[in-house]
Amino acid sequence: LPEAEDIAYVHGMIAFGYEQCHLLDRAEAAARHAMTLQHDEAWSHHAIAHVMLTQGRVAEGAAFMESVADTWSGLNSFMRSHNWWHLALFYLSLGRHDDVRTAYDTHVWGMAKNYSQDQVGATSLLARMEFAGVNVGDRWADVADHVAQRGADTVSPFLTLQYLYALSRTGRAEAAPLMQAIKERAGDITQHDHVAWRDVALPAATAITAHARGDWDTVITQMARALPRMAECGGSHAQRDLFEQIHL
User: Fold this and answer.
1) Tens digit of pLDDT for each residue in 166-182?
2) Residue 62, SS3?
3) For 135, which DSSP code?
4) Whole-angstrom Cα distance, residue 230 to residue 104?
5) How far is 212 from 168, CA to CA, in rounded Å?
6) 18, 21, 96, 132: which one has the fewest Cβ atoms less than 10 Å from its Cβ?
7) Which long-range contacts (CB under 8 A, 24 or more apart) does 124-131 make?
């Protein structure tokens, strides 16, 4: 901007940037402006979902996302599944458990099961569903099967922590070598993101594995170390809330 003033996508993207900087009014204004230029601009829908979730406008958020959901069908798997993930969070907050399960089965999981973003979206939604008392049935098994195929994937600490959660939650043998890979990554001082792995991802990973075995004291102490700096691992505010919920 201002050279791209007439391009809806730019306003939708900057709206998300504003939201991540806690400039919620500017975020919503930019997203609404994007929609006046192009009603189906998916990043503007995404930014508004973030704003409404942050402000506790849960019923309004669900209604808004439902009103534009029909425009997401032609998007790539991540953008479609992620906007539905946001709608599912509103459903969860409203106690609409059947709608959450339907959103998960129809839109969040199943389009690109080998894609990292779809895998962590499914993992984090299933975890939140369980924390909220939703019966998820046997849904974990398929997610864990696909995550297990990644091996010791430490490309991104934000993604890796969620892979570890899925594997630990289901008692998969692959959780142990992934945890070892996280420890090795945390000890590799040659990497540019060494500090994030050492000081944030490693204690968070320790907490996640402890959570799976019911060692609550370790969960509390280790996740408490990681949470103040969790942004260093990546992800958005809404996505990182998973780690807050594990701690709670």
Assistant:
1) 999 999 999 999 999 99
2) helix
3) -
4) 26
5) 6
6) 21
7) 124/85, 124/162, 124/165, 124/239, 124/242, 125/85, 125/88, 125/89, 125/100, 127/165, 127/169, 127/242, 127/245, 127/246, 128/89, 128/92, 128/242, 128/245, 129/92, 129/97, 129/100, 129/101, 129/104, 131/245
